[in-house]
Design goal:
The protein has 291 residues and is mainly β. The protein has two helices and 19 strands.
């Protein structure tokens, strides 16, 4: 955790041999601050294929929704996309995407997507992108790192389809190398590493459920995280979904989801997110207005 507070850090540069490689280099830098009882955007810089338009006030509680956009329609082989977001002290930001992220076939270098978010003391982050959809032959390296200062709170959702399931293309991607890291006060609270290769393993470890999601929440160490995890696990879920939840040792919880359809995955995510907004943030349901 950078002790100097909310300032956008410079993005790391691409690989030294970037001049000879294919793919686009997209960058996005955002910073938010709390001013006069509301959250405001204080810095915006982007390079296509990443784009950010304007924050949207959906809740009326001083928080904003920040929709991240890739107008090219997906991630291509060789792309290097880097996002940095600072959530300042007492600022409250809900980061979303308007649609699922498609990762297309890679005939050369893997695509790389890196997202780093800093949450200052008293800040609130809700990170809720729609899921990844890897196409046949897709190869992706993804890193998501969230640093939360003491007194900050965060709800982080990460999910993927195991291919274009409805087209019978589950497990047809080439390789997925995914990592989600959440730190609180500079100490590791949650680390999830997933490395998957295609060519449909037998038996299918997802038991025919082609959508996988993980929801992580961190905040006050003295909150009743085990009880909250038990509540989230017991809550109703669609018949094709399986949900498990547990507390984190350092103060927080994690929810794992397996679902048979994208609609089931989204339903479980929305329901558990709504519960966490009530338990962790003391707020009501937020309508993201996504299709």
């Amino acid at each position: 955790m950078d002790p100097q507070g909310p300032a956008v850090r410079e993005l790391a540069g691409p690989a030294p041999d970037s001049a000879s490689r294919v793919g686009r280099e997209g960058r996005l830098e955002l910073a938010f601050a709390h001013e006069r009882g509301r959250t405001v955007l204080t810095r915006r810089r982007f390079e296509l294929p990443l784009q950010f338009l304007e924050p949207i006030d959906l809740a009326g509680d001083g928080s904003v929704c920040a929709p991240l956009v890739n107008p090219t329609g997906g991630v291509l082989g060789g792309d290097w996309l880097a996002t940095r977001i600072d959530v300042g002290a007492l600022a409250s930001v809900c980061v979303t995407t308007p649609s699922a992220t498609r990762v297309y076939r890679c005939d050369g270098r893997a695509a790389r997507v890196e997202t780093r978010i800093w949450v200052a003391p008293g800040g609130v982050l809700e990170y809720l992108p729609l899921h990844l959809i890897p196409h046949p032959g897709a190869e992706l390296l993804q890193r998501l790192c969230v640093d939360v200062a003491p007194g900050g709170r965060a709800i982080v959702w990460d999910a993927l389809a195991l291919g274009r399931v409805a087209r019978g293309e589950a497990w047809s991607f080439a390789r997925l190398d995914l990592e989600t890291r959440v730190r609180v006060g500079g100490r590791l609270a949650f680390l999830d590493r997933v490395r998957l290769t295609g060519t449909a393993p037998a038996p299918d470890p997802a038991a025919g459920r082609g959508y996988v999601g993980t929801l992580v929440a961190v905040g006050p160490a003295d909150a009743d995280w085990p009880a909250w995890a038990a509540e989230l696990e017991r809550a109703p879920a669609p018949s094709g979904a399986r949900v498990g939840a547990s507390g984190l040792e350092s103060g927080g919880l994690v929810v794992r989801v397996l679902a048979a359809t994208a609609a089931e995955l989204e339903a479980v995510a929305s329901d558990r997110w709504a519960a966490l907004r009530r338990l962790l943030l003391g707020r009501g349901l937020l309508d993201l207005r996504r299709p």
